[in-house]
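Much of what follows relies on a compact textual record of a protein's fold. Here is one such record, which you should read through line by line:
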Amino acid sequence: MKKKNISIFIFFSLSVLAFLIISPSQQKTYMAKTAPSNKQALPQQNKTKKKPAHHPAPNRHIASINKPKPAKKLPLHNREVIGETQDLAQLKMKNKISKDWQDKYKKNFMRMTFEEKLKDFTIEKKRSIIKVQNKIGRYLEHVVVRYVRPDGKPFAFEALVDSETGSLVQTWNRTRYEFKKHVKIDGSKYRYKE
């Protein structure tokens, strides 16, 4: 017990001595920093006012996303050009424009779905497009197709439809239904037994 008390006393006395030795040197540097100097008492005539630097904000964008280019429109058909753009006057076209493309598409759609009980079938035209691939253009229509299935659930999707034949070229944004069954957890088998 005496050894423990002696070691505590020695530790305490060394820490007090260290504080007394370090403290006066810190006080001298503190006093030197806060003492008024003769230079500060003189008027400041030669100093010029510093103006803040004006840096215009750079016009920055996300590097991984390219700026979309505005779509070109043909003067004759008022269509947007998608794909490899070139001289539109010399562009060879794969198909022609037909006025009854909607009727052809609806007929093909009904034939392919085998569902005659579809309700509220609508085709909404969004825009007309010329899609260029391998230096050959193709007239397309961007549409939204909506209908109600026989079980009463609404369904919709967007599509690109050929302007001449009414055939489907590409679809996206299809309505999807997720049927989730509720999981019931029975913890009675795993209760703690004493």
In short: The longest helix spans residues 2-34.
